[in-house]
Design goal:
The protein is mostly helical and about 120 residues long. The chain contains seven helices and no strands.
Length: about 120
Amino acid sequence: MTSKRLMNPREFGQHITGKARAKGYDLTTADGRTRLAKDTGLPEGDIAAIAAGKYKPPVDPWKTFGEIVVERHKDMLCMVGILEPSGTRPPKKSVKDTAVDLGLTQPKSVVIFEALVAALLNSEK
């Protein structure tokens, strides 16, 4: 069962119960549910509901907040560092900046590094 498809609460409960079991949490026992609740910060009642296939998550307050201030909630979570933007890459650095990041400080060393990188890139063409 893949975690990327839409699941009904029962399927989700089975999926999470299996994942939790693989990590050492037996959600069929009170001890397992209590430990997972403590370790995740979720209420034990939510853990029990998930395991029983009866969990319907509450509306995310960030989503409601985003609707009110007209900002996508996922974008806000990225802005504050809770989520990483999907499909984004850091800006490309220049070869000179990369040389400095590597600790090359002498101008002659930087020039040699730039020439070496240029030669390697040309050989890939």
